[in-house]
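Obj: model holo form, ligand = alpha-D-glucopyranose.
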Amino acid sequence: MNKNFVVVKDVGKRVHPCYDEVGVTIVDKRTWWKEAVVYQIYPRSFYDTNGDGIGDLNGITAKLDYLQELGVDVLWLSPIFRSPNADNGYDISDYEDIMAEFGTLSDFDRLLKEAKARGLKLLLDLVVNHTSDEHPWFIASRKNDPRYRDFYIWREGKEGAPPTNWFAAFGGSAWKYVPERRAYYLHLFTEKQPDLNWEEKNVRDAVYAMMRFWLDKGVDGFRMDVINLIGKPDVFEDAPVPPGETYGNGFAFIANHPKSYWYLREMYDEVLSHYDVMTVGETPAVTPDVALNYVADGKPLNMVFQFEHMDVDSGKNKWDVRPVDWVRFKTIMSRWEEGLADRGWNSLYLNNHDQPRSVSRYVTRSADSALRRRGAKMLATMLHLMQGTPFIYQGEEIGMTNVAFPRIEDYRDVETLNFYAEGRKRGVAHEALMPSIYAKSRDNARTPMQWSHERHAGFTQGEPWIKVGSNYTEINVESSLSDPDSIFHYYRALIRLRKRLPVIVYGTYTVYDLDHPSLYIYERKLNGDALLVLLNLTETVQHYTVPSTFYGHQAELILNNIEPLAAFWPYINGEVAPDLTLHRLTDLTFAPYEARVYHLVSA
Ligand code: GLC
Ligand code: CA
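Output (holo structure tokens):
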């Protein structure tokens, strides 16, 4: 028996997830944000309390009991600040006030207080690569007001053309000409999102002051929007233009520029280090090696959102939809698990407000709802049992799916609308554009949260700002709560299991049979405690002989997405030793989308 840790059987008796029965510490240092599960809320689409069709802060407060029941620890709110909504709040015109449609500062204070009362922490979205063009700083800057002149990135044109040939993220040039200043400003996103000039110390100080404003209210950290783009090169050069295209990729010169590290270091020293907070940087174009510059010990952030695994179903760009390449997916995830092990920390996500719904993306496109539910549970198992902090995006926990609105007029997202308009301009037919939109539009994630089978899925008493998914009578919170085998209860089980078994948070990760195209198999280990996770990624039956290291070993099945969940709750809840049949690991057969989690019993 391992001296430091008592394995299996009596998990229920363990006094505390990170200590064994004699109180020996099994991890050096516990960290709350490593043990946490985060839930992302897109406020506009979460819950509307005043019938204007737009979700609001009071709507979040109204649903805190639901989130507490799910068992998450931290809520991350997509931007709630004043904004003209060119990019749904990712274009901020006042960082210290609330978006009018979402409520008031006192609504926010109440939300924070009610969240804290339930033991929930709150992260805000820090959008400081750019502001709105309606922010007073920009209004002053474009007028050449000396106090704000250099708050943004202004350059002269080149013979009547923009300073460089870079594209903006959602289409068109990254530069816009302002006659008043006889200069162009840089906007890496829409032209209503001018990039801040982080060179300017006054900009940085203003951002830090704003961060303190929220931290002093008691918020618990930030998700930092495209934070590895804040540092810009000293000299702006043209980028190569691929054949047949108009613009070059300026992001390649910008992402992860050394200045970004430097600014984040300063932000850490001046602000973050003075609070007990959690930080996660959204960082396109990072590899594990690059990420270590942000998240290794002594670095300014706790974790980053990487994007590599979001590209496994894309060809030349996101709209060029390909079948999911699972071997590539597993290779990427494993590279991150191994790359950050002992040196940094991973974030784990399959969904957010910018991505299509994972169940539609990675799981069966068939209409069989039982299979779809099983697939959703398989994906959840995969993600939540890796090493890292799992993020759940609203609706994921009930298996919400993509939508397919036949008319472009029903879409709201600026990226989607620009893609459509540009395609039409090039003469591409409506019918040829829509399949990409059905598969990848960001609006897939932004349709209203499906609360019940009532009108508009119980999201609003008015007309919702974007249409509700058509399957809300089947997929909704109300029916998920009442069905003990729903996806919701499976997520609850995974979260509860995380609180019971420190191996899930702190254990090492080892992948097996990486080249297997249909199965994902990995092991987690901590001081002699071991879990084996086996996932069938496909819609067909799979046979598998376990790796020789496990062959013939005894194991307890502690979670599975086919048997009723009731069989596993006694174990998960740590009640009296459950009466689980021991399995001998040999040749195994997996049903479509089956997920199994074995607790290995030491020989
Ligand atoms: C991030 C956000 C996205 C937004 C963009 C510009 O990628 O997640 O929603 O459009 O930054 O702020
Ligand atoms: Ca409202």
